[in-house]
Structures are given as structure tokens and as C-alpha cells.
Design goal:
By secondary structure, this protein is α/β, with parallel strands linked by helices. The protein contains 10 helices and 10 strands. Helix 4 links the parallel strand 5 and strand 6. Helix 1 packs antiparallel against helix 10 and helix 6 packs across helix 7.
Length: 314
């Protein structure tokens, strides 16, 4: 018990030291943007599925996803940066959460309203929510083999009622309303519930179609003819009006520079991800460590209560 208590105290001291260092040292704060020169192209990357979540620079956080708060911060910084003359958005994503995508797209709308051009460069894949964001750009580049499109919405759920019956297990719920357990995997949906969910899907789908129609300056009826969830190549997307030109990252970068009035072959770029700033790393790790510490502290208190008769109510 004494050894366990010492571990908790040591953990608290380490956490406190990290928090003080990360919050007070000027050496670990991100450097200021150089406001001299001809300006640069701000490059923002969207790699992986798009989901809602906090911005973190923790070394050991779950990778492979793009969070809305991370991207909103980067787009906001690009909009407010006087030296960012244009924004190049490199997208390599199969899609993601609609709510998170809409949050990000609002920041892109603010950039366009400010007069700064947004150029999109599609990578291997820019589909579904990825294309939702791409349609917010002023100009879209793709390669002929880029997988894009997938304009549509779906909501899935599983029904394991048959399996539960075979196992002799029954799930029961005490609920506040008839639809509180809608999409439950333990029972089939009623026709009323199916209609409710379908109306939600239709509403989000209509928002998606309208976004594409507005962004691409296309007739909404034309968008609907190809917004059936199909995927397509970059070349097919160009033929349908969803992409402007064929080109790779550097073609898109050159176009962005030209759109922002930046001349020359060596194009200066700026990234706002700051993923390896020491302060950001420590802040992210401190948060993760705090979660572990809190769990251990709760466990320690629980053991003390269980082992002390004087504190128990019998």
C-alpha cells in the first residue's frame, strides 16, 4: 500500500512539473510568423477520416484521423495571417462525420469571404465528406486516377436479435420515450422509426447536394443526377464538372501562388499544424497523463476505503 501511495505522489510531482514547464517557458512557445517578404501559400493537409474532436499534439495520441478543431484552428490562422496570400488544401480522405465537416467548411467560407483564394489538391482519395470540403475551394485539382465523388449520406446499424435468441439472452430497457433506443442492435426498427431516420438522412443529403451546387456553381438538378453515392475517377469527375483540372500537388501549389499574386518558381509555403512544437507535445502528453493519473488516484482512494473499517458504513 505504501509503495502504491509513493507511486501516486511521484506521478503527481511529474505532472505538475510538466504543466509548469509547458505553460511558462518561452523557449517552448511557437515562433512568431515573419511578417516581412512577399508572402506565402498556406498549406493545410487533410489526411484520413474526418471526425469531431480536440486539437492535440500528443506523441502517443490515436493517429489516422483528422479532427475538426485541429482544422478549424489552421483555417482560422490562415485567414488571419496577413502574409498568407492563398490557401492550398491537400486532401487525402475517404470522408467522415457530417457535423465535423460542416464546422470545418464554415471556416473555409470565411476565408473565401475574406478574398483569399482556396485551391484544392486531391491525393489518392477525396470522397464523401472529403469532397464536401473540396467543393468549398475556388479551384480543384485531381489526378486522373484519384478516387472521388461518393456524394451521399448513409446511417447504418446492426441487428443481432436473432443471435441473441439462439444464445438465450434477452436485452431489456427501461426508457423515457418510445424512440429513446432507436437504432438499438437488439431489436428491429419500427416503420415509424425507419421513416424518422430516413428523413434525417434525406435532410443531410439535401445539404450536401446544395453545398456542391453552390460551390461548383452547378444546377442542383444536375448535381442530383450524379449524387447517388457513386465513386469516380478524377478524370470522370472533371468531365462531370466536379473537378477543374488534372494536376499534382505542385501544379496546385503553382496555381495557388499565382492566384495569390506570388511570383517565382521557388514558392514559399507555411504550415500551421505545428505538430512537433515542444510545448504542444508536452501539453498533449500532460493531458493524457492527467487522465491516467486521475484513474490511478480514484483507484487508490477506492482501495483505502475498502481496506479501512472505520470509513465503511455497515
Amino acid at each position: 500500500m505504501k509503495q502504491h501511495r509513493n507511486w501516486v505522489i511521484a506521478a503527481f510531482v511529474i505532472l505538475l512539473a510538466i504543466a509548469i514547464a509547458a505553460g511558462t517557458s518561452d523557449l517552448w512557445r511557437p515562433g512568431k510568423v515573419n511578417e516581412k517578404g512577399k508572402g506565402y501559400v498556406a498549406v493545410i493537409r487533410i489526411d484520413g477520416p474526418i471526425y469531431g474532436g480536440p486539437d492535440t499534439e500528443a506523441l502517443f495520441s490515436n493517429g489516422g484521423n483528422v479532427t475538426s478543431e485541429q482544422l478549424m484552428k489552421e483555417f482560422k490562422m490562415a485567414r488571419q495571417d496577413p502574409q498568407a496570400k492563398a490557401i492550398l488544401v491537400r486532401i487525402n480522405s475517404p470522408g467522415g462525420s457530417t457535423g465535423a465537416t460542416q464546422e470545418i467548411s464554415e471556416e473555409m467560407d470565411k476565408i473565401r469571404s475574406s478574398g483569399k483564394p482556396i485551391v484544392i489538391s486531391m491525393g489518392d482519395m477525396c470522397a464523401s465528406a472529403g469532397y464536401w470540403l473540396a467543393s468549398k475551394g475556388n479551384y480543384i485539382f485531381a489526378t486522373p486516377a484519384t478516387i472521388t465523388g461518393s456524394i451521399g449520406v448513409y446511417m447504418d446499424y446492426s441487428n443481432i436479435e436473432g443471435l441473441m435468441d439462439k444464445l438465450g439472452v434477452k436485452n431489456e430497457k427501461i426508457k423515457s420515450g418510445a424512440h429513446k433506443d432507436i437504432l438499438s442492435m437488439y431489436r428491429p426498427m419500427t416503420e415509424e422509426e425507419r421513416s424518422m431516420v430516413q428523413s434525417m438522412v434525406d435532410d443531410i443529403y439535401n445539404q450536401f447536394v446544395q453545398t456542391v451546387a453552390d460551390g461548383r456553381k452547378m444546377d442542383e438538378a444536375k448535381v442530383r443526377t450524379i449524387a447517388d453515392g457513386r465513386i469516380m475517377t478524377g478524370k470522370q469527375a472533371q468531365d462531370l464538372g466536379l473537378v477543374d483540372a488534372m494536376g499534382n500537388y505542385y501544379d496546385a501549389l503553382s496555381y495557388a501562388a499565382s492566384s495569390g499574386g506570388i511570383e517565382g518558381e521557388n514558392i514559399p509555403v507555411k504550415s500551421y499544424s505545428g505538430g512537433m512544437s515542444l510545448r504542444g507535445i508536452l501539453s498533449g502528453e500532460a493531458k493524457g497523463f492527467a487522465d491516467i493519473f486521475a484513474a490511478k488516484l480514484a483507484e487508490s482512494f477506492s482501495k483505502v476505503l475498502l481496506q479501512s473499517d472505520s470509513l465503511m458504513v455497515k
